[in-house]
Each structure stands twice: as C-alpha cells, then as structure tokens.
C-alpha cells in the first residue's frame, strides 16, 4: 500500500502526503478518512458538535493530540500552552492562545499531521490489544468509537461477527442510527457495520485520488515518497503551499514566534517543497 510518488496534487492532498511520509501512516487511509469526515474541505464544521476541519477534531481531542505531539512538528508553543487538569480535561489559560490552537484545525498541514499522529497512537494500542496488525478500518473504528470502544467492538466481532452492533453500543446507536440500523429499521451486525466503514473509506480514498485501499492492512509507507506540486499546478495550490508556514507562524502568540520554524530536516523539506513549487 506504499506510494512511490505523488505528483501534481492539490494543497490538501499534499498536506496529507507529507503527514503520511513523516509519520508512516498510510496515505490512502488518511486520504479516505479526510474524504469521509469533511469531503476534503479544510474549513468543514459540524452542526451538532465542536468538530471542525479536515479531520473533524472536537476541541478536547485536538487539544490532547497537540499537547502530546505538537512539539514534534514545530508546534511547541501550542503544546506548552496546553495543560491537563486532574479530571483529564485539556485547558489553555490564555484565551488568545486557545483560539489560535483551535484554529489550527482548519489548516491542512497541521490537521493532517495531528490526524496521522492520532492514528499512529491508535494503531499501536489496537495492535497491542488484538495481537495482530491493524487495518485502516480498525483505525476508523477507533476514530468513531474511541480506542476503548474500538477494542470492545473488534474483540466482539472476532468472537461473533453476526451479533447486533446496537446491542453492544446502545448509546452510539441512538446517536448514529443510520450506522447501526438499515433504512427499514433492521439492526446491523458488527460485521456489517465494519464492512460499511471499510467501503466508505475505500470510496473516499478513490474519490480523493488515492492509489490503493484505505481499509486494508497498514504498512509503514515508502520512506522515499516524493511529494511534488509540479509546475503545472493551479495558482490556488501554489498559494496554499506558499502561505501554509506563514499562516501557522501568524497563529502563534507573539512570545512563541520562531519555535514553529525552528530548523530541522522536516521543516527544511517543507520549505524546499514550497520554494520548488514557486520556482525558487
């Protein structure tokens, strides 16, 4: 499922490809997830929750993953601004910093990196629990039900795939009736729910220009993946690359300026891609 090269992609797909390369999470899975969650729209917003952005992170999930992984990707200022209370809630005392951190959900580069890191954490936890390699669909179950719910779902499905999913997850079934029940009102089995998510991921990856199945077993990706915008790219895509680092830097509180763009191989590569696409 690794991808030897990706050329002339739009800005969103480029961001996903870079996140895949930097984290080892499969490109097709990340692409399929983004298509399912937001239709590849960086500014997508849910009408019933705080879910926002390419991967529809709710506020607490976003603050948690930025706290854990932000510093690895030049967002140390954000990670340092977030603290976890005794009850487990993530908070930011400075309202301006909190707004800046949450606004990063709408940036394809930041959202893709944090989604990939979150998927990597879930992959490790699921594989340790299940004793087998995780698939893209397994990761999406963790996204949908949380890591505890995914472990429960997948273990139960291994034991009896024909069991009613709604009987095992009544609260989730009430909130997501179309997932757990057919249009006629029949309760779907665990296997049926799983296969529906697999089909959605694969369809999403194909719609976004993916090169393989998003639902399949995950590999580490190709370390030599080439992410190139190309000279024939649309002006909007070049503008996206040219403004990505500027937008992230501008979102920081003034005191944190410079930490995002600290020199490291990853940031140097992003800068190179930007300059190359603009003919620099």
Short description:
This protein is mainly alpha-helical.
For the biggest sheet, the summary is: 2 strands, parallel
Unreliably modeled segments: 1-8, 220-242, 251-280
**Adjacency order of strands in the biggest sheet:** 1-4
Task: Give the C-level CATH assignment.
Answer: Mainly Alpha
What is the helix content? 55-70%
CATH fold-level topology: Lysozyme
CATH architecture: Orthogonal Bundle
Number of domains: 1
**Rg over CA atoms:** 19 Å
Instruction: Tell me how many strands there are.
Output: 4
Apparent shape: globular
Would you mind describing this structure in some detail?
The chain has 280 residues and is mainly alpha-helical. The protein has one domain: Orthogonal Bundle (Lysozyme), CATH 1.10.530.10. Helix content is 57%, strand content 4%. It has helices spanning 11-23, 27-38, 59-69, 76-81, 95-103, 108-130, 136-159, 165-168, 170-175, 177-180, 190-207, 235-251, 265-277; strands at residues 5-7, 82-84, 90-92, 226-228. Strands 1-4 form a two-stranded parallel sheet. It has a two-stranded antiparallel sheet with strand order 2-3. A hairpin with a 5-residue loop joins strand 2 (82-84) and strand 3. Helix 2 (27-38) packs across helix 11 (190-207) and helix 6 packs parallel to helix 7. The longest helix has 24 residues, at 136-159. It starts with a strand and ends with a helix.
Layout of helices and strands, plus pairs?
Elements: E1 5-7, H1 11-23, H2 27-38, H3 59-69, H4 76-81, E2 82-84, E3 90-92, H5 95-103, H6 108-130, H7 136-159, H8 165-168, H9 170-175, H10 177-180, H11 190-207, E4 226-228, H12 235-251, H13 265-277
Helix pairs in contact: 1-6, 2-11, 3-6, 6-7, 7-11, 12-13
């Amino acid at each position: 499922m690794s991808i030897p090269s990706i050329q002339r992609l739009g800005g969103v797909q480029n961001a996903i490809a870079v996140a895949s390369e930097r984290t080892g999470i499969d490109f097709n899975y990340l692409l399929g997830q983004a298509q399912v969650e937001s239709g590849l729209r960086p500014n997508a917003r849910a009408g019933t929750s705080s879910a926002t952005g390419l991967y529809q992170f709710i506020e607490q999930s976003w603050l948690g993953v930025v706290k854990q992984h932000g510093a690895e990707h030049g967002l140390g200022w954000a990670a340092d601004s977030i603290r976890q209370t005794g009850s487990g809630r993530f908070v930011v005392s400075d309202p301006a910093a909190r707004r800046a951190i949450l606004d990063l959900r709408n940036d394809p580069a930041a959202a893709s990196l944090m989604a990939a890191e979150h998927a990597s954490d879930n992959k490790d936890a699921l594989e340790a629990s299940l004793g087998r390699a995780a698939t893209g669909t397994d990761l999406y179950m963790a996204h949908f039900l949380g890591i505890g719910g995914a472990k429960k779902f997948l273990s139960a499905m291994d034991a009896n795939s024909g069991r009613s999913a709604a009987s095992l997850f009544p609260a989730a079934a009430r909130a997501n009736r179309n997932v757990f029940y057919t249009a006629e009102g029949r309760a779907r089995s665990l296997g049926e729910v799983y296969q529906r998510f697999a089909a959605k991921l694969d369809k999403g990856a194909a719609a976004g220009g993916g090169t393989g199945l998003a639902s399949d077993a995950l590999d580490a990706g190709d370390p030599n993946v080439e992410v190139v915008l190309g000279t024939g790219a649309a002006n909007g895509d070049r503008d996206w690359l040219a403004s990505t680092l500027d937008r992230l830097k501008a979102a920081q509180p003034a005191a944190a300026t410079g930490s995002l763009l600290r020199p490291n191989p990853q940031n140097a590569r992003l800068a190179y891609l930007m300059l190359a696409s603009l003919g620099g």
